[in-house]
């Protein structure tokens, strides 16, 4: 089956007439043929988005909210079908695939409610008979570039706030998950006016780069790798840019922690979604007093996890062959760096990889610094809380962090001192909720946050309004 781009409310072929396939990572079955688009297609999409913007910006936000609620309801109705499609297209096990769709349902519902808020401020003027306030304005046509690891949820995180604020959209999904994006766009077809959402499939070089550079787009939101994020910042020009570029997320385990709970959290954080989350726990920093006991418990649990397909497994495949090679390269690097491989370390078959744990990892090692995006966990030893926090913060990234401790004082010190966008106490590094802001510090991003109330900031502009009803020329700052 061949799928088109979705431009100005119509499914169309790309200008260049080329196509590519999306494959199921578990068995290489085709999920369809998609447009391998280029800069011309991006131009068409931007033109459609620009034209649609003139009407869309004038639709009252509560009315836009009503449309978002309809989208949320359609997602709910199609949850099983879409959840299973997520599993087929990128490999995460079925209940996580359903969770991916649930996150989209939730964010559309949440942002629908924002349609009746979109608050500004009212504040007194320093002059008599003068009124001052701020209002939220849309930006215009915006570009959204999304990753494959949450092929429904992350597009929804960006599309829902962009729409409620009154922007129109040019959306480029990851090359690995065009089918999920097509199905998402299909669901919105008939609810949104034509041209409000435009979908262009293809690769980063031919579609992503022209979107990044496009002077007709007023903002750009990107979730993906550091390397591409740097390209985005260097090439976007003067636009509002939102970035989420991953993490090297640590879990600290103190000597007073409930170790069984910590093992549960580490397994879920490190190996859930096969380690392919920006928020995945890829470092565990364990207090020296419980280090050996923790490693023992962890290694006892790992063989009990099943690796397979769909609902019959705990852990699915990696997304593609290149991902498997990257993971395998890092395992080789870890061995060379003289970390101790205590678990896994080999390819299974196809795109499946063993759950892998290294101990004796030093903070300076590449396996402790670089994002692997696979089922590879580095265990580091700490002398105490301060040492653990220093190790946790010894990273370019600052997305998600966690601490397991029964001591409230330890917890609050960690909350204050861990340099990251998210800190979890007695819970893993993954699983953020849509009504709370999401994003990171340091090189994880450029300070923007998605989801929650701050998701609105990324897709709106503040206008300051002064209304002078004195009937005379009044000058601020006491000028006579
Ligand atoms: C990501 O991995 O890119 O907090 C996003 C979580 C999910 C989102 C992760 N809700 O793990």
Looking at this protein, list some descriptive labels.
480 residues, alpha/beta, Aldehyde Dehydrogenase, Chain A, domain 2, 2 domains, 7-stranded mixed sheet, 5-stranded parallel sheet, 15 helices, 21 strands
CA gyration radius, whole angstroms: 24 Å
Bound molecules: 2-aminohexanedioic acid
Report the CATH topology name of the largest domain.
Answer: Aldehyde Dehydrogenase, Chain A, domain 1
In the predicted model, the low-confidence regions spanning at least 5 consecutive residues are: none
CATH top level label of the largest domain: Alpha Beta
Q: Which class of secondary structure composition applies to the elements?
A: alpha/beta
Fraction of residues in helix: 25-40%
What global shape is seen?
Answer: globular
Annotation field: number of helices: 15
Main sheet? 7 strands, mixed
Strand element count: 21
The tally of domains stands at 2
CATH superfamily of the largest domain: Aldehyde Dehydrogenase, Chain A, domain 1
Overall pLDDT = 97
What portion of residues belong to β-strands? 15-25%
CATH architecture assignment name of the largest domain: 3-Layer(aba) Sandwich
N-to-C span: 73 Å
As laid out across the biggest beta sheet, the strand order is 14-15-16-13-12-18-19
């Amino acid at each position: 089956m061949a799928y088109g781009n979705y431009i100005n409310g119509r499914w169309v072929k790309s200008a260049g007439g080329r196509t590519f396939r999306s494959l199921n990572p578990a068995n290489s079955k085709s999920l369809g043929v998609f447009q391998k688009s280029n800069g011309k297609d991006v131009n068409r999409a931007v033109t459609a988005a620009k034209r649609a913007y003139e009407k869309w910006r004038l639709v009252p936000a509560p009315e836009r909210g009503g449309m978002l609620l309809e989208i949320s309801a359609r997602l709910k109705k199609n949850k099983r079908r879409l959840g299973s499609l997520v599993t087929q297209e990128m490999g995460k096990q079925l209940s996580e695939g359903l969770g991916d769709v649930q996150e989209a349902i939730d964010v559309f519902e949440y942002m629908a409610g924002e349609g009746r808020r979109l608050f500004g401020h009212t504040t007194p003027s320093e002059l008599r008979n003068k009124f001052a306030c701020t209002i939220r304005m849309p930006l215009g046509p915006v570009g959204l570039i999304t990753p494959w690891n949450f092929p429904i949820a992350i597009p929804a995180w960006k599309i829902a706030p962009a729409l409620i604020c009154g922007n129109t959209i040019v959306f480029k999904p990851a090359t690995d998950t065009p089918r999920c994006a097509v199905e998402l766009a299909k669901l919105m077809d008939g609810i949104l006016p034509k041209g409000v959402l435009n979908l262009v499939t293809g690769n980063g070089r031919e579609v992503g780069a022209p979107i990044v550079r496009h002077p007709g787009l007023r903002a750009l939101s990107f979730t993906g790798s550091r390397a591409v994020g740097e390209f985005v910042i260097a090439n976007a020009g003067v636009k509002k840019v939102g970035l989420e570029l991953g993490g090297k997320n640590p879990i600290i385990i103190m000597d007073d922690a409930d170790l069984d709970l910590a093992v549960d959290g580490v397994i879920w954080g490190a190996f859930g979604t096969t380690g392919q989350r920006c928020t995945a726990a890829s470092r565990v920093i364990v207090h020296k007093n419980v280090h050996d006991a923790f490693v023992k418990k962890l290694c006892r649990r790992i063989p009990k996890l099943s690796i397979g397909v769909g609902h019959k497994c705990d852990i699915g495949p990696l997304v593609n062959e290149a991902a498997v090679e990257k993971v395998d390269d890092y395992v080789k690097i870890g061995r060379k760096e003289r970390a101790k491989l205590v678990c896994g370390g080999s390819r299974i078959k196809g795109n499946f990889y063993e759950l892998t744990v290294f101990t004796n990892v030093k903070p300076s090692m590449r396996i402790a610094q670089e994002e692997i995006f696979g089922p590879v966990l580095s265990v580091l030893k700490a002398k105490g809380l301060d040492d653990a926090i220093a190790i946790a913060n010894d990273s370019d990234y600052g997305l998600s962090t966690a601490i397991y401790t029964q001591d409230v004082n330890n917890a609050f010190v960690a909350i204050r001192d861990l340099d990251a966008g998210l800190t979890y106490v007695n819970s893993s590094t993954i699983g953020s909720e849509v009504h709370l802001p999401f994003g990171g510090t340091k090189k994880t991003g450029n300070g923007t946050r998605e989801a929650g109330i701050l998701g609105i900031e990324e897709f709106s502009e503040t206008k300051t309004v002064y209304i002078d009803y004195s009937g005379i020329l009044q000058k601020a700052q006491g000028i006579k």
